[in-house]
Amino acid sequence: MENSDSFERFKDLDLSRDEIDRLGEALKKDEFRKLLIDYVQEVQDPENQKLYEKEITQLEKERGNDIQFLHPTPCYVIKTSLNGNKKCFINICGNDLVKKPSSTPSEKDGARGLQWSLPHSLSPPSEDLDNKGDRCKVFDVLFHPDTLHLAHKNKTFRNMVNKTACNAIESNFDIKLDKNNLKFPKMKYKGVARASVIRKPSTEGPIERSPKKRNFLINFMLKQMNLDKVTRIQKRVKSLQTEKKVLMKILFIQPPNISSNIVVM
Description:
With about 260 residues, the chain is α+β, with helices and mostly antiparallel strands. The chain has two domains: about 15-70 and about 210-255, no CATH class; about 70-195, no CATH class. Helix content is about 45%, strand content about 25%. The protein is built from nine helices and nine strands. The protein has helices at about 1-10, 15-25, 30-45, 45-60, 145-155, 155-175, 210-225, 225-235, 240-250, and strands at about 65-70, 75-80, 85-95, 100-110, 110-115, 120-130, 135-145, 195-200, 260-265. Strands 2-3-7-6-9 form a five-stranded mixed beta sheet. Mean pLDDT is about 75; it is low at about 1-10 and about 235-260.
């Protein structure tokens, strides 16, 4: 049964027989494995992340965009199922760039209370593995730290945060979550934390640069992204498609996310 499950997961990678053979041969070599590990460590190095974000911000500025990187601060995790047949995790996180919660007085059936607004930010889902090695979906939902502080102090408010997160995921990604069977594993974050981006048109417009200066900036950024090492990995596997699937599907290695967030403010 275990071998059958492993085969199904491997089949999902959509690798050709030739790619599987090349990958298998490459992984037998110590040099390739060391190169792959070094690449992962460099991609995840905080200093490299900072340099990457700095250069991306500059390039986006030239294109007439202002961007902000949202780094999730882990808080707690919700575990449930997706569309009735796939396990998923929701990382409830904090970030100061998300707007603070607000409330207005309300009255319903003679009872007075508060109508809350909980601004939040969603990032595109990622894939990970559960503790059995099965694939699962992971979503990040970011709130302002004040929202999470209130959720920590008040169970009713926490339930409202959970409901807001689930509803936002369902409406933005056109999926169905099992909201009647939410579980809360003893972890603060599922997967590898990734920054995502809020992109807005700049009031200053695009910035013109000379071709020489632009080429210098692009080459510097490519160097920080360690593309020379990626190229060496590609040569060892002898297939760009295989290399991409190795990094993105098998090992779930993901460079800094520069796609726009879905932001609800």
